[in-house]
Amino acid sequence: MIAVELHSHTTVSDGFQTPMEIVRLAARKGLSAIAVTDHDTFRGASLAKRAAKLLGGVFVIPSAEVRSLLGDVLVYAQTTWATIFRGL
């Protein structure tokens, strides 16, 4: 069975753990993947991806929780904005 957490926040927005701590916790709990969905930014997801690369074992889905006029929307991506704009 694959265990995945699809909605988590870090200290980049309103969470209590750093991206590194979230990745460590996910690994300890045996999760295969996590989505770091900080408010209005992919920064937490980018930092979590770096942490996961160092620690191994957990796949980080680039994501964000975006505020809109209709309410919050979870956005899941194949890559982070930093990766997209790096080549520009």
| Total of helices | 3
Hey, roughly how much beta strand do the residues contain? 25-35%
Task: Kindly report the oligomeric state of this protein.
Answer: single chain
* Overall morphology: globular
Radius of gyration: 13 Å
Q: Structural class of the helix and strand makeup? A: alpha/beta
Bin the helical content. 25-40%
First and last CA, distance:
40 Å
* Mean pLDDT level: 90
Tell me the strand order in the biggest sheet: 1-2-3-4
Major sheet summary line: 4 strands, mixed
Order of helices and strands: EHEHEEH
Low-confidence stretches: none
| Total beta strand runs | 4
Please summarize what this structure is:
With 88 residues, the chain is of the alpha/beta class. The chain contains three helices and four strands, in the order E-H-E-H-E-E-H.
Structure description:
- This protein has 88 residues and is an alpha/beta fold.
- 33% of the residues lie in helices and 28% in strands.
- It has helices at 19-28, 43-55, 81-86; strands spanning 4-8, 33-36, 59-68, 71-76.
- Helix 1 (19-28) packs across helix 2 (43-55).
- The longest helix has 13 residues, at 43-55.
- The radius of gyration is 13 Å and the shape is globular.
- The protein starts with a strand and ends with a helix.
- The mean pLDDT is 90.
